[in-house]
Write a structure and sequence with these properties.
The protein has two domains: 184 residues, Rossmann fold, CATH 3.40.50.2300; 123 residues, Response regulator (Rossmann fold, 3-Layer(aba) Sandwich), CATH 3.40.50. Helices cover 46% and strands 17% of the residues. Helix 4 links the parallel strand 4 and strand 5.
Length: 334
């Protein structure tokens, strides 16, 4: 009950902030440009709005449906605001750091950055801030954004989200759960498992998998299901949840599966009873608010967040509300 009260407060803050903002090569170093109409009407802007460039640099891997939604939110903000958005990503922290440096060298006006590996990005982010480039972090990095000089962080507390997952597993009555981590070294994912273990009444073991090789990950999960005492799985991403569902079917076991993050398949699997729940951090919101927050700083000197993170989640998706979410997931925005 305590977790659900905290979740309600978190989501209330997210709704208020989203309302206040409503008024635009993906991988291996590639980038994609989205340009909108200049729109006009920004007399106080330091330059024509149509000349503003914001770079979103994430750690998203090729083909990851979650990051497609983050990018989609950023692109929509770029179009709505009439600015140019450059998107690039690389799961390797060294290469992601280089993408940040390249954006600063190209005279970007602002940066939106995910920090799965904060230590690997610290120097580049601090250098960008020192150069006068406004930065907002998204998704991962909630514990480090202030130290690095960012305006705010848009995302969820992975610890709170993990604790909520642990309580959902308790309600399902499972006793022995495998928590599947799909990206090695991602501190946010480790926090999810740790939070879940904190509130879960049974035994929980972490399992390393690979989100870029879902077939091999399915085999890895299925091998753990040979232990008949395992009666629950907690996956930390939408794509990996599909591998878990397939592993359960292949093993012929009755195993409860919960997940973090939502896509169209996840929403349908929740509706079909193949997934107990999904913890949604609303990646579209992260992309949209990250870009619009940097934009407001550029044109009007606004710092959103008041020195606190801007929470985009968690929201708990169950069979009761999955149908409503599914229609947006089909559009690629949930």
């Amino acid at each position: 009950m305590a977790i659900k009260k905290r979740l309600s407060a978190v989501l209330a803050v997210g709704v208020l902030l989203l309302s206040a903002c409503s008024t635009g090569s993906d991988t291996s170093g590639g980038d994609e440009e989205v340009a909108g109409d200049s729109g006009g009407g920004e007399a106080a802007a330091p330059k024509d709005v149509g000349d503003i460039r914001i770079d979103m640099v994430t750690h998203g891997a090729p083909g990851d449906s979650f990051w497609d939604v983050v990018k989609s939110g950023g692109q929509r903000a770029g179009k709505d605001l009439g600015i140019t958005l450059q998107y690039s990503s690389d799961p390797d922290p060294g290469k992601q750091s280089t993408l940040i440096d390249n954006a600063v060298a190209a005279k970007t006006d602002g940066l939106v950055i995910s920090m799965a590996n904060p230590d690997g990005l610290e120097a580049s982010i601090k250098s960008a801030v020192q150069a006068g480039v406004p930065v907002i972090t998204i998704n991962s990095g909630i514990d480090d954004w202030q130290d690095f000089g960012a305006i705010t962080h848009v995302g969820q507390s992975e610890t709170i989200a993990g604790e909520a997952a642990g309580e959902e597993l308790n309600e399902a009555g499972v006793q022995n759960v495998i928590c599947v981590i799909q990206e090695a070294g991602n501190v946010a994912l480790e926090d999810r498992c740790a939070g879940a273990a904190e509130t879960f009444d049974g035994e929980m073991e972490n399992l390393q998998a690979d989100n870029t090789d879902l077939q091999a990950s399915q085999a890895t999960i299925q091998s753990k299901l040979e232990d008949n005492s395992v009666d629950g799985l907690l996956t930390l991403g939408g794509d990996m949840s599909g591998a878990a569902v397939r592993a359960v079917n292949a093993a012929g076991r009755d195993v409860a599966v919960g997940t973090f993050d939502v896509n169209a398949d996840v929403a349908q699997n929740v509706l079909d009873g193949k997934l107990l729940f999904a913890i949604d951090q609303q990646p579209y919101v992260q992309g949209y608010l990250g870009v619009s927050g940097v934009y407001l700083n550029i044109i009007n000197g606004n710092d959103i967040g008041g020195g606190q993170p801007v929470y985009s989640g968690p929201a708990i998706i169950t069979k009761e509300n999955a149908e409503e979410v599914a229609q947006f997931a089909e559009n690629g925005t949930r």
